[in-house]
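For reproducibility, we list the full input for the LMANGFYV complex.
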Amino acid sequence: MSTATIDHLDPDVLRAYIERTRWFAGKGRDLHIGEVTRLGVLPGDGPVVVVHLVEVVYDDAAGGRELYQVPLVFYRDPEPRLEHALVGSWEEPADAPLPGAVHAYDALHDREATAQWLRAFAATPAGGSRTADAFVVHRVPGHELDVDAVPSLYPGEQSNSSVFFGEDAVMKVFRKVTPGVNPDIEVHDVLTRAGSENVAALYAWLEHLDADGSPWQLAMLQQFLRTATDGWTLALGSVRDLLAETVTHALEADAADQVHARDAGGDFAGEAARLGESVRAVHDLLAEQFPTERADAQDAAALAAVLHRRLEAAVDAVPELAEHRDGVAALYDRVAALEGFERQRVHGDLHLGQTLRTSKGWKIVDFEGEPAAPLAERVRPDSRWRDVAGMLRSFDYAPRVVERDFALDHPGTDEARDQRAAEWAHRNRNHFLTAYAGGELSADERLLLDAYTADKAVYETVYETRNRPTWAAIPLRAVAEIGAA
Ligand SMILES: Nc1ncnc2c1ncn2[C@@H]1O[C@H](COP(=O)(O)OP(=O)(O)O)[C@@H](O)[C@H]1O
Ligand SMILES: O=P(O)(O)O[C@H]1O[C@H](CO)[C@@H](O[C@H]2O[C@H](CO)[C@@H](O)[C@H](O)[C@H]2O)[C@H](O)[C@H]1O
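The corresponding predicted structure, in tokenized form, follows.
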């Protein structure tokens, strides 16, 4: 029986819920729940939605603490439609303001509750701000919100929680939050005002002001890209086409008849090139709108030191990396010898899942940066090649993921599949990079690209080990190849 009340949530109840969500980044770590802060009740006449900040304190060697946003909706009676999002049930004591049974659910799963956010945005004048209880809502001018749009929670895997409001808008509620400006909101605000055609326009955002008047940016509302399909899904489709034709031929015909990436029905190379142009356009606009700087030799040495430290931390978390450490470290040593390089605001965690192809071209989403990095690091000017490297890694992931699926159903086709998967990756990486760069890369640019590609693959081994252990072999193989080069 839980000892929770609405005013004093039971840490064990919260922990049990948080640990089973996709958005919780600390899975598998030794931790306890620290302070639980009630930020306030969302304004509006619907069900009571209370927004909480839950502190997670890590008790392992790496230590640290994170704050997660957990909006809860409370009902008197159980809501069977929300059973999957039940956080806890308890009896409020007789002397409580509302004694009796209480059932607490994750509010993002409840249509009635998510409509509260939409109403709060819509009640704010376009181009203005409005304070309601503990929250401040900001609206960007230029779009009339559809208040009758039906909310539905994005069903895919996510670091945050997104709710689609019909075909009008999409709201992202940030789960891991930090005080100050949220980079996703900041970048979308700047790029929307600058008229970018490569992002979904920002419509509004919600923040909480703490006792010192500092903002905590909690959620943003954006243009819903109605015709969007994400790049990851499209890439998987293209690889599946290729491998389906490949396995048929591998079993039936001789090598001369093999299907190549360029000949398969769903060739992705044209899209990869257009995506390269779009990423370039976003980078150019970011360089225009945010400060840029020329990093010097000392900065290059500092960058190399960071890459080395990240590698060492990753080896501690994923011991299989140890045998490739020296090869990767040698690449980072070359970065330390660079005389300088350009830095600017970047995306920070770019991969195919952050790209959406629409009838009006490719759009880039999710400018929050790498989820595991501290905020100060995520907003700092960085090399564009970090983002390009993220995309190149993604062009390696897609064929490897599909190949795993095919392996079970098509024994005896390993060599053909492996060759075609590598060819798909090579072809699409080249098309993306050529379109992005518009010419040959200099030796320094190539070195930075290689180093960031290694760093991303190393990061992915940790990410996959914690989140999708059966996929860890994909980035491990890439690290091994880089280490052996
Ligand atoms: N403006 C949009 N319109 C339509 N779909 C979107 C939009 N923004 C994001 N999505 C979809 O939601 C998914 C998750 O969004 P994302 O910003 O990457 O969330 P997270 O920060 O949780 O990873 C994207 O991969 C995409 O499929
Ligand atoms: O999208 P997020 O900000 O949550 O990014 C994290 O999760 C991504 C997976 O969803 C992860 O990306 C890795 O897997 C992708 C395929 O699912 C692949 O396309 C990427 O290249 C690969 O890095 C990302 O690294 C992580 O930060």
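The chain has a mean pLDDT of 93. Residues 157, 159, 232, 349, 351-353, 366, 370-371, 393-394, 397, 460, 463 surround LMANGFYV (ligand 2) (CB under 6 Å). Both points were considered when choosing residues for closer inspection.
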